[in-house]
Specification:
By secondary structure, the chain is α+β, with helices and mostly antiparallel strands. The chain contains six helices and nine strands; from the N terminus they run ββαβααβαβαββββα.
């Protein structure tokens, strides 16, 4: 499960962002990173979560952090979603679950009593060395960004 990742480096990966740039653990190094996994572009909960990170952007930047969203959506879908919502951070495309699966952000879930496989809304906070410092499995969107920012502040202060 994703909580077992705490204290360990982020698993190796190479994914494209919405602009076609390749993102790897080396890309993330040197800054605190919020990596949030979400099920699907332009759906109500996912839009709310993305916009909450957007609206907290000044605080994220003040903390010296980067934000990356990650889902199985295509680069084209990410480009449309990012432009429409005016998101200041990149969205990673992981159609093959290259990073989602090792993070524990893909698997069995229950929605409205129906079991399925898919992305489990989760957030991972990485330190500047690429080590996972905090994990939020099965995220509830309301108030989540504030939880992430509070944890980021606490970890940065030691």
């Amino acid at each position: 499960m994703s909580v077992d990742l705490i204290g360990k480096p982020i698993p190796p990966f190479a994914l494209s962002d919405d602009q076609g740039a390749t993102v790897t653990p080396a890309t993330l190094a040197g800054a605190w990173v919020v990596l949030y996994a979400y099920p699907k572009d332009a759906t109500p909960g996912c839009t709310t979560e993305a916009c909450d990170f957007r609206d907290a952007w000044a605080r994220v930047q003040a903390a010296g952090a980067k934000v990356y969203g990650i889902s199985r959506d295509s680069m084209a879908s990410h480009q449309t979603f990012r432009a429409k919502q005016e998101l200041p951070f990149p969205l990673l495309s992981d159609p093959d679950k290259t990073l989602l699966a090792p993070l524990g952000a893909f698997g069995r879930k229950v929605l409205y009593g129906k079991e399925s496989e898919g992305i489990i809304r989760s957030t991972f906070l990485l330190d500047p060395a690429g080590v996972v410092r905090h994990v939020w499995p099965k995220v509830s969107v309301k108030g989540h960004v504030q939880e992430v920012l509070d944890a980021l502040d606490a970890l940065r202060k030691g």
